[in-house]
C-alpha cells in the first residue's frame, strides 16, 4: 500500500463535484432542504483521526510498543477518510457552485447555502486530519541509517 497521492484526492473530488452538480441540476426542486449541520459528521471523524494521529505519533516518538497491524489499520483508515473527504468536498462544492448564483433569486437556495459551506469546511478538515494521521504513521528514519548515509554518501 502506498500513501495517498494528491491526484487520487483530486480525482475523487472531481467525481463528487460532477455527480452532485448533475443531481442538483436535475432534481433540486424536489429535494428537501439541507440541514445546516449536515456535514458535521465529517468534522467528528476529523477530530477522532486527529486524536489518533497524536497518540500514534507520541507512541512512535517515545518508542513505546506500536504493532505493525495497528499502524496498517491506522493508515488504511487515513487513506479511506482522505478519499471520503475529497469526494464529499467535491459534493459540497457542487452544492455551493449550484446554490450561490441562485441564492439571490431563490429563498430555498439562500437557506441551503450555509449547509453547503459548512459541509465543505468539514470535508476539508477531514482531509487534513486524515493526511496528518497518515503522516504520523510513517516510520521514522533511523539515526544510524542517516549517519551511514552521510559517511558513505
UniProtKB/TrEMBL annotation:
Keyword match Membrane: yes
Protein name: DUF3180 domain-containing protein
UniProt keyword Cell cycle present: no
A Pfam short name: DUF3180
Residue intervals passing through the bilayer: 9-28, 34-56, 77-101, 113-133
Keywords (A to Z) from UniProt: Membrane, Transmembrane, Transmembrane helix
Domain of life: Bacteria
